[in-house]
Design goal:
single chain, mainly alpha, 4 helices
Length: 102
């Protein structure tokens, strides 16, 4: 029977939302802040989707180190989901216009 190293064993225990490149809530919030700043300068669907992914990652149980993390994660996720939904709506509207023009 092969024994897993402690690192391999711990890696397999992470939830799907956890980002091992951003090991703490602070790291995720710094990345989210930077993404939001970039979005403010030059908005794009890709940046909005990245911000949403980062906000959703805060829902991982590994980030529950601070009492308000879950509430913060939900608020941020809802806000960025609205932004991403707006991009999707615009894409559908543009597609519909192009289809009706042809």
């Amino acid at each position: 029977m092969k024994m897993q190293s402690l690192t391999e064993q711990k890696a397999t225990e992470y939830s799907a939302l956890y980002d091992s490149d951003l090991p703490t809530v602070k790291d995720v919030l710094i990345a989210l802040s930077g993404t939001a700043t970039q979005y403010a300068v030059k908005p794009s669907k890709d940046l909005a989707e990245l911000a949403l992914r980062l906000a959703n990652s805060l829902k991982a149980p590994e980030y529950n180190e601070i009492a308000y993390t879950e509430k913060l994660a939900n608020q941020l996720s809802q806000q960025w989901a609205r932004v991403v939904d707006e991009y999707r709506y615009l894409e559908i509207s543009i597609l519909a216009q192009n289809t009706s023009i042809q």
